[in-house]
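Collaborator request, handled under Task 6.
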Amino acid sequence: MAVYNLGSINADLVYRVPHLPTAGETLASVSYTRGLGGKGANMSVAAARAAARVVHIGAVGADGAWAVERLLEYGVDTRAISVVAEPTGHAIIAVDDAGENLILLYPGANQAIPEADILSALNGAGPEDTFLLQNETNAGRFAACTASALGLRVAYAAAPFEADAVAAVMPLLDLLVVNAVEAAQLEQATGLGPSDLPVRDVVVTLGADGCRWYNTDTGEAQHFAAIPVTAVDTTGAGDTFTGYLVAGLDRGMPMAQAITLAQRAAAIMVTRAGAADVIPDLKDLEDARFS
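Structure tokens returned to the collaborator:
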């Protein structure tokens, strides 16, 4: 069993500022940090920390060796990460004292993953494995078609939301994960609510209200209440949830058990500031005491 994740790899460049800059303003930052980010990298780290074998399929530039090394340190198989001519993707993030932020995203190498490298990465994968993708890379439809033809379970986190991207992979999906805003956008684009989509399992995350799982084969829906915690930073919480959910399913857990595991991980994640570098592991979940 393994999770093959076609996903973005970003450098998160975070600047603390006294206030968010306005047009034409030059503003000195109070501090600067560089961390590993990107929805794909976050999900790979989360799945690996949930004890799944994870193969990350992606790309960095010549400047991205540190990001690959960081993924490897977190237990992710990095042999399917290509080095391409484009610079590594990055996000420039300004955060003020009130916690408001401004983000500039440069996709870079994330949009230059060679299809031949995707084929090579999936060589040997089969029905016991899971394929995961999001919307921050190129070749999503190509990779999903390849994985589906090989018999892998295909899971998709439809973020950042793009109606055309969702439509392109919808017929190939076994699992769809969206948040409430994305679910509404998808219904507006397709005219179909979560229970009517042509995907067997649909999970809609609801933030502080928990999540809802729709089994479209049986027509049943089950609500899972959120775990009450005091949130410090919600960055990466949804990615952590998805990574843990996919890892649990890949390890053979029933859906309800995998969702419960994922919720515990996401609850811990929102109490920490950061992205991939602070995603909890299974020991953190075991040690956690929720009220």
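The cover message to the collaborator said: "The longest helix spans residues 255-269. The radius of gyration is 18 Å. Please let us know whether this matches your experimental observations."
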